[in-house]
Amino acid sequence: MAVRMVAVALGALLCFARGASGAGPTISTSREVTDGLDVVISCNISGAPTAIRGHYWMKGNTKIQSDDTSADSTSYMLEKVDHETSGEYECFFKTTPLAKGTVYVKVEPHVVAYKKSEHGNERDVGVLICKSASYPPVTQWSWFKMVDGPQPIVNGTDNRFFIKSDGNKTELRIMDLNIEKDPGEYRCNGTNEMGEGSAVVSLRVRSRLAALWPFLGIVAEVLVLVTIIFIFEKRRKPDEIPDDDDGGSAPLKSNANHKDKNVRQRNAN
Ligand SMILES: *[C@@H]1O[C@H](CO)[C@@H](O)[C@H](O)[C@H]1NC(C)=O
Ligand SMILES: *[C@@H]1O[C@H](CO)[C@@H](O)[C@H](O)[C@H]1NC(C)=O
Ligand SMILES: *[C@@H]1O[C@H](CO)[C@@H](O)[C@H](O)[C@H]1NC(C)=O
Ligand SMILES: *[C@@H]1O[C@H](CO)[C@@H](O)[C@H](O)[C@H]1NC(C)=O
């Protein structure tokens, strides 16, 4: 069984090697790009297996350019090299089979905080996130607490600080948030072969009680309203009788008139 699997694997390898080194086309690509404006990237083909019926360029899953000419070279212009245009650009020659080359556009990590300011409640878990969507992916992420300069945060410290990272994203989790020690600024650093980039996230920690304030506020508001209504209701009853008497005589004209209307309306209801 194992022997047969090895044989199959070897066979596949041999086929692959023959395909790669055999009579297939050679595609030469322009060099990788790391900066500039109006940069032209290109691919040339030699030894095309069939006639060339056109070309197209892909970036990720998006077709960004195509044509139907038979030229043995194709090019694509980048207006600007930055984190948005960085990536792997693939040129295709429409032959049978398709022939493909790749041009790499690389920049240093473009690191941004998912949220510049985060807050958590005391004893909850605080989560700080940084992302980088540039190419190539970040190979090394690190976190620092800014206290008179950056203090590195080691994964697992105090069994409270945990870091989870991949090429696009890093997440710092702080368990059991401490209102004395944890608030402040945190910096995430991302490094790739081109350099590094960083962002700062500030963390605020609210006391458990503070989390209750909005709720207590509403309760207080309701209590005040109920009290006011209660007091007015209580006051109104004895008032109504002298109000009626006032009705006829009018020593203070304007005031009395207003009162009068109010009383009549009230009585009508
Ligand atoms: C493709 O070929 C043209 C000339 O035929 C040459 O000027 C250009 O530099 C070549 N480009 C690449 C990427 O090899
Ligand atoms: C940090 O430690 C946890 C386990 O304690 C692990 O799952 C995680 O991958 C580590 N993160 C990094 C960046 O090493
Ligand atoms: C980066 O994010 C994209 C989607 O946003 C995902 O497809 C890709 O797998 C991620 N790369 C890494 C290295 O995690
Ligand atoms: C973190 O990044 C900043 C700026 O991007 C850089 O100045 C600093 O040296 C980096 N720190 C480390 C330890 O890599």
Q: Can you tell me about this structure?
A:
Helix content is 28%, strand content 39%. By secondary structure, the protein is an alpha+beta fold. The strands form 4 sheets. Strands 9-16-15-11-12 form a 5-stranded mixed β-sheet. The protein has a 4-stranded antiparallel β-sheet with strand order 4-3-6-7, with no helix packed on it. α2 (208-246) crosses α3. The longest helix is centred in the last third of the chain and has 39 residues, at 208-246. The N and C termini lie far apart (96 Å). The relative contact order is 0.10. The model is unreliable at 5-21 and 247-264 (pLDDT under 50). The site of one 2-acetamido-2-deoxy-beta-D-glucopyranose has 4 residues, from loops.
Short précis:
The protein is of the alpha+beta class. Helix content is 28%, strand content 39%. Strands 9-16-15-11-12 form a five-stranded mixed β-sheet. The protein has a four-stranded antiparallel β-sheet with strand order 4-3-6-7, with no helix packed on it. The chain has a four-stranded antiparallel β-sheet with strand order 8-10-14-13, with no helix packed on it.
